[in-house]
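Supplementary Methods S3. Complex input for the glutathione-bound model.
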Amino acid sequence: MTSLDLYTWKTSNGRKATIMLEECGLEYNVHPIDISTEMQFSDEFVAINPNSKIPALVDHNGPNGDRITIFESGAILMYLAEKTGLFMPTEPEKKYEVIQWVMFQMGGIGPIFGQVHHFKRAAKEKVPYAINRYFNECRRLYGVLDARLENRNFLANEDLSIADFCVLPWVFRHDWQEINLQDFQNVQRWYEMLMSRPALSKGMEIPK
Ligand SMILES: N[C@@H](CCC(=O)N[C@@H](CS)C(=O)NCC(=O)O)C(=O)O
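Predicted complex, serialized as structure tokens:
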């Protein structure tokens, strides 16, 4: 029986957790939180994440065998990396190289790409200033990724890490962002290589 309960929905932030769990080969229970029907605001879910956002993880066998709840996708990935010893090195220099690219995703890519999705697709009113502001920053961030991935296979160090898992589900939505990956060929190579991994692509489809 697994000790892990994941509360999630099939979005960019949710997919980070499911691809990490699948890549680690961990068993876990999936609790779908349909954010389109506002399940994230239910009392049961708010008790797990007071910020009402997916994903959130409960480990009934956390540190010292105690139950622990974790929200914020970056924190969930770091927790699972430390629990399993996978996808984040322990040597400080290498570990912080991973963490800085995780933070780059959490503080830059996530919020900016999220606004691109909102203003280009969801917003009823099309606001050119907002669309241009977030799209230009989105393109700039693709440029940062592309420069970083020149002559490299992964974002941090020489190995696949949680930094790659954090960024990938946002690049997966390049069509929503109206980004042509051929303009960012290093990102495209990295993206295609990661998407060809069976565990990762399985994680992209959860919850069903
Ligand atoms: N920084 C948070 C962001 C989480 C987040 O924004 N999740 C979205 C789905 S991708 C959500 O739950 N939205 C529901 C809402 O905003 O009400 C994380 O990385 O976990």
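Residues 33 and 86 are 27 Å apart (CA to CA). The pocket of glutathione is lined by residues 11-14, 35, 40, 52-54, 72-73, 106, 110 (CB under 6 Å).
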